[in-house]
Design goal:
Elements lengths: L3 E5 L8 H17 L3 E5 L6 E8 L2 E8 L10 H26 L5 E5 L3 H13 L3 E4 L13 H7 L8 E4 L2 H9 L7 E3 L8
Parallel strand pairs: 1-2, 1-5, 2-4, 5-6, 6-7, 7-8
Antiparallel strand pairs: 3-4
Helix pairs in contact: 2-3
Length: 195
Amino acid sequence: MDNIFLISSKLPPEYSGSGNRVFKTALKLEEKFNYRYKMICSSTVKRNFQNFYFYNNREIYLISKKFFDQNIKRSKIQEFINFRLNYFIEFFFLFKFLFSKRKSINFLHIVGNVNITNASIIFAKIFKIPIILEIVNDIDTFNFYIPKLFKIIFGEKLNKNDKIIVISKKLEKMFLNFGYNQSQIWHKPNPVDKK
């Protein structure tokens, strides 16, 4: 099987606990089950980059097109426009890439909450591709950004065959309260070793 796409907010060498863990997990699973992940990530370090790079002999596609700086103080309207423009620029690059591979994708493994991970949820909804969504932060609400038009057409919730991995019982309860089935949710305690 060569059709699993890992889409993460960050992957090595850029540091994040979840990015490092999921990268290592992918390599272990590949070795055990004899298949390969295709890897896509974003970045907070590289602001205007969209290309392939190699890490640990693995090809990773990095999409980070933040033409409009998030850190500059702006009015609420400017902030809103800035966020949406950055979102749709990265959405375009991710969608274009996944669209070219859509017939060969078995499922998407989505980790984190950034523009490309949010866009990949929409892509999966449109093309009815199963996803495993990994929630790696302690959040109070499921706040992935989905533009209103997509919410109206495809709904706000994940598809019923999608799986959600959570790092705490609190998050498990939150998804149950949102109307997801217990069979969709896997509570897997956070395995990151702080050392």
